[in-house]
């Protein structure tokens, strides 16, 4: 059966605390508690989606003995690709020694472009068109200074090598729920995204995540108690916990994959990183329920079962190791690293 | 830098691909077509080799006043790294404080943005180093 042959995550080292952002904009420090986000990852001045994707992909390739030359497809999902025209995926392919006999493309679907890439690779592998496909979700998301998004928009990514042989986790089923819902967008040439405020909640995140989850339950004949872990898209620390409870999952099932309180919303990296941190600790037979969400809007759901093969791989470096290796920076340094300053003569 | 000039060296910059002399076994980075020690005896015997990216700090300096492309990164560390396979290469050490670096410390290569041709030009990626965890 098609599944995950290997995986790797990467989170940049720098963190800014939400209370520091609140201090600068004259807001109450408790805003972080309200969002369920206490610090967020910040990319270094020489990091972008290409470098984060390469680091995640290399961490995935370290865990397995697959010859990169056997990878038939590379897809990178992100809403912050470094180029508007020029693929990130070719950079990743070259940097892991894959190609040139492969197909590659960049995906964009707000925060679910990475899971859409996993589905594409599943289809190509299942049909026999390729032996292995590499799917990556990665972002260096930006929120306008002072905007609500600035408290959560962060950076990180995860890569999944999809194949049929030696899978460490079988993907039993995938299902998607998609509508045209303009809850969050960024027009061509605009630096920062816009959003519909409260409109991003009920008719957007909750509607799509709930319907996707319910659709997946129906198609698999499963219920929440059948799963050891559940991971949902994490735009903040509250939405995934609430949607999990609404579906009948317990905190115990949700807490492992919930990274937003410590690293913020990594957008296209959000659900993939949550899945990766679960795979870092999962045991054979564990069942994982994963539902992403991308504004615009849609959700991709996955029913996954961990296999015995996971015991045969070295799971280092773990996602947790990147989260633990952190350096807190102040708002001024954050502004400098994120290039929110205009320097004369540039 | 023009796009083709960078493109020609992508394999070296992304994957630390150098050469090994088929005559004496010495390894070089960047790529050489002739071994400077074996001269004509190495002709036709130079083969490409991918380095592990692991090495140690041979020497380093801290840049406090960088060029315009690097002024967002100051102070930053430039080092000569002696790779485990032998060659010494120049590279930036990132993700640490300048006071944390000492000669002899083990490092590993990482993939980072090296530079860009202004706001509308191409972006250059390649190797930098971080202290081994």
Percent of residues of chain A in helical segments?
25-40%
Order of helices and strands of chain B: HHEEEEEEEE
**The CATH superfamily title of the largest domain in chain A:** Thiolase/Chalcone synthase
CATH topology of the largest domain in chain A: Peroxisomal Thiolase, Chain A, domain 1
How many strands of chain B? 8
Overall number of strands of chain A: 14
Task: Tell me the count of domains of chain A.
Answer: 2
Largest sheet of chain B: 5 strands, antiparallel
Gross morphology of chain B is globular
* H and E string of chain A: EEHHEHEHEHEEEEEHEHHHHEEHEH
Write down the CATH class of the largest domain in chain A: Alpha Beta
Number of helices of chain B: 2
Q: What fraction of the residues of chain B are assigned to beta strands by DSSP?
A: 35-45%
Given as residue ranges, the uncertain stretches of chain B (5+ residues, pLDDT < 50) are none
So what's the CATH class of the domain at 53-133 in chain B? Answer: Mainly Beta
Distance between the termini of chain A: 53 Å
